[in-house]
Design a protein that fits this description.
Layout lengths: L2 H9 L7 H8 L6 H10 L17 E5 L3 H10 L4 E5 L2 E4 L9 E5 H7 L4 H4 L2 H10 L6 H11 L9
Antiparallel strand pairs: 1-4, 2-3
Helix pairs in contact: 1-4, 3-8
The structure holds zinc ion.
């Protein structure tokens, strides 16, 4: 069993999703659109690393502070293993998509990070922004309103 499948089983045990659904989950639908929108709002609709937003011509994506690849590898051993994101904030290996493990990042910055630890990749100012962001509750109701107002047009590409 691959880590991805184990992870999917942990994420949605009640849905009995197929392998086809797993592929979708790895693409743009790995997080609900309203949650994605709420995360972008929490972060001011800008990349927390370089500060650029959609008005600057960049695509917004979500960055996993503890990389998904790390979570997946650890989840193969035990999905309930807690991995430290920052200080007292932890994420279960089997649940890498919690809002306190996700921050807004432009596609350029995200594609150059790879699996570099976020405390090494993010610059000092960005680390301050990250630490504040992951301690802020996301507003899912706002996210839902944003998605509804978009009337079906995707707000960004897959990530
Ligand atoms: Zn950036």
């Amino acid at each position: 069993m691959s880590g991805i499948i184990a992870l999917r089983a942990k994420e949605s045990p009640a849905h009995g999703r197929s392998r086809v659904a797993t592929k979708v989950w790895q693409g743009m639908n790995w997080v609900r659109q309203e949650k994605r929108a709420a995360l972008y709002e929490r972060d001011g609709r800008r990349c927390l690393q370089c500060g650029r937003g959609t008005n600057d011509g960049v695509t917004l994506t979500l960055d996993h502070l503890v990389p998904r690849s790390v979570c997946t590898a650890v989840a193969e051993l035990d999905p309930k293993t807690e991995i430290v994101v920052d200080g007292e904030i932890t994420v279960f290996a089997g649940k890498p998509n919690e809002s306190h493990n996700l921050v807004t990042m432009c596609g350029d910055c995200n594609s150059s990070r790879g699996a570099t630890p976020w405390t090494e990749f993010y610059n000092a100012d960005a680390q301050v922004r990250v630490r504040s962001a992951i301690r802020t509750e996301i507003d899912l109701a706002l996210g839902k309103r944003i998605i509804a107002s978009l009337a079906g047009s995707p707000i960004e590409s897959a990530r």
